[in-house]
Amino acid sequence: MNNKFIRIYEDIAERIRNGEIEAGTLLQSELELSERYQTSRETIRKALKMLYEEGYIQKIQGKGSIVLDIRKIDFPVSGLVSFKELAQKMGHRAQTVVKLFREQAVDQALSQKTGFAQQQQVWQINRVRKVDGEQVILDKDYISQRLIPGLDEDICQDSIYEYIEQGLGLSISYAKKEILVEEPTAEDRELLDLEGFHNVVVVRSQVYLEDTSQFQYTESRHRPDKFIFVDFARRK
């Protein structure tokens, strides 16, 4: 059947997810897999291509396919990387769902929290990020309407940073970040799959354009098992 390679992909992907095939090991060769699944090597190549595109394996010339560790995702601390850019490395394993999109005036409490001036109009956006079907990140954003006009739910579903850089032609320059661990809120428990987890990792960021104007405040709330927060340090 034409979709046999999909069934093979799904079987191997499930074995990687449940740990039967360990991260860092070499996947069986095309010949071994074709014998295991009683199919042609061309069908196996299609399944391997799909595994590669979905972020389960990395092809190493002359060696074969090495299994990637899909349980943890490197999340750069010092870099400014959109979720779409991270998701592209994971293929279709990642998905965004917009839970809230509305306009809001900044009051005193929100000004103290975000750094935006009072009475400024902002977009308020809540998005849930899914990885392998599990809801593991809640992103809560406030974005300046004056600096970033024209936002809508479709853009938020896709990539706000891509819209800013490619649609508006603006340059995102730098961010101030803080990382802490908190007990989950009622909202976290409602929107994230947190059964068995008693903490969330919270990254709060104020993000600036090239002219030093703050355009975004974001609070990104992560289930702790899915991400490794990485940085590069050099002794001076």
From TrEMBL:
Domain of life: Bacteria
SMART domains: HTH_GNTR (SM00345), UTRA (SM00866)
Keyword Membrane part of the UniProt annotation: no
InterPro entries: Bact_HTH_transcr_reg, Chorismate_lyase_/UTRA_dom_sf, TreR, Tscrpt_reg_HTH_GntR, UTRA, WH-like_DNA-bd_sf, WH_DNA-bd_sf
Gene3D superfamilies noted in UniProt: Chorismate lyase-like, Winged helix-like DNA-binding domain superfamily/Winged helix DNA-binding domain
Keywords: DNA-binding, Transcription, Transcription regulation
Start and end residues of each HTH gntR-type domain: 2-70
UniProt keyword annotation of DNA-binding present: yes
Protein name in UniProt: Trehalose operon repressor
